[in-house]
């Protein structure tokens, strides 16, 4: 799996990524994946990452980009 | 504005491609070495549509030509923000991304779609719109856009080669795991 931009988050990221990939291929793609089983691991990884993004000043850039990407949601989040 | 478009076919099922896509930039991919980190920022399944929405931050090693990085500024890493949508029902992966770094000078908006062509083939369609925003000289803008498109094309070629390697390894590892499981099943049956 790929690394995190913050080396101190690599372990938490690795644990989460493995969990996600297993869930994605074995459950989600087979129509059995509505609940996120990896939420706990994601929380740990996210906690580490949030601090790293703030320290590097990337959080501000992300806010702007998120705004710009909102129109993509309307295009791609098809409702049934 | 310059447009870069590219289409590829992978001889793997959509399920394999969409799974391997999450680890496109792992060590098995020794071609796309300009990508040094991929972080997941948010992820959820939309309860209404069943679509998996993911936000990721991609960190790249700066590989712009020297004259261009002089214009862009001296940072050695750059960041890309990506939002992706997986629709398992219609079997479609859509990824849209834009540059975070230098966004006041250069706008790079990319979209990638993976869809099945058949049970064993998947189509990859890539589009990028590159616009230099620096005011003033048309010639400079044009050169900045040209250089960016060239780099994009190079990375796209490397990306395809690298992803092929990841797909091959994924299939091999998955096959070995399956064999192991089958072996265990067989042993159980014997016992």
Automatic annotation (TrEMBL), chain A:
GO BP annotations, alphabetical order:
phospholipid translocation
Keyword Oxidoreductase attached? no
Q: What is this protein called?
A: Putative MDM35 Mitochondrial Distribution and Morphology protein
Task: Name a GO CC annotation attached to this entry.
Answer: cytosol
Annotated organism of origin = Venustampulla echinocandica
The organism's taxonomic lineage, starting at the top: Eukaryota, Fungi, Dikarya, Ascomycota, Pezizomycotina
One Gene Ontology MF term: phosphatidic acid transfer activity
Say which family it is in.
Answer: Belongs to the TRIAP1/MDM35 family.
Keywords from the UniProt entry:
Disulfide bond
Automatic annotation (TrEMBL), chain B:
Identify the InterPro entries for this entry. Answer: PRELI/MSF1_dom, Slowmo/Ups
Domain PRELI/MSF1, by residue range, is 1-175
GO CC terms for this protein?
mitochondrial intermembrane space
Q: What is this protein called?
A: PRELI/MSF1 domain-containing protein
Q: Which organism is it from?
A: Venustampulla echinocandica
Coiled-coil annotated spans: none
> Which Pfam families does UniProt cross-reference here?
PRELI
Q: What is the lineage of its organism?
A: Eukaryota, Fungi, Dikarya, Ascomycota, Pezizomycotina
């Amino acid at each position: 799996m790929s690394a995190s931009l913050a080396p101190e988050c690599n372990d938490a990221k690795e644990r989460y990524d493995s969990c996600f990939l297993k869930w994605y291929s074995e459950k989600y793609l087979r129509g059995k994946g509505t609940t996120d089983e990896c939420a706990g691991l994601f929380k740990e990884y996210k906690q580490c990452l949030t601090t790293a993004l703030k320290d590097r000043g990337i959080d501000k850039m992300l806010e702007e980009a998120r705004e710009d990407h909102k129109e993509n949601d309307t295009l791609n989040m098809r409702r049934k | 504005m310059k447009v870069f478009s590219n289409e590829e076919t992978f001889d793997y099922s959509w399920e394999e491609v969409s799974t391997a896509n999450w680890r496109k930039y792992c060590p098995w991919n020794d071609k796309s070495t300009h990508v040094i980190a991929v972080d997941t920022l948010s992820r959820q399944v939309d309860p209404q549509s069943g679509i998996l929405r993911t936000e990721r931050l991609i960190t790249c090693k700066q590989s712009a030509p020297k004259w261009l990085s002089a214009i862009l500024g001296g940072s050695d890493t750059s960041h890309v923000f990506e939002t992706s949508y997986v629709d398992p029902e219609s079997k479609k992966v859509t990824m849209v991304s834009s540059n975070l770094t230098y966004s006041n000078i250069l706008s790079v908006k990319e979209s990638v779609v993976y869809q099945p062509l058949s049970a064993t083939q998947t189509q990859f369609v890539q589009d990028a719109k590159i616009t230099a925003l620096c005011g003033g000289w048309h010639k400079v803008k044009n050169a900045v856009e040209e250089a960016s498109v060239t780099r994009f094309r190079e990375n796209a070629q490397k990306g395809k080669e690298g992803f092929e390697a990841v797909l091959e390894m994924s299939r091999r590892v998955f096959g070995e795991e399956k064999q192991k499981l089958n072996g265990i099943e067989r042993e159980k049956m014997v016992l």
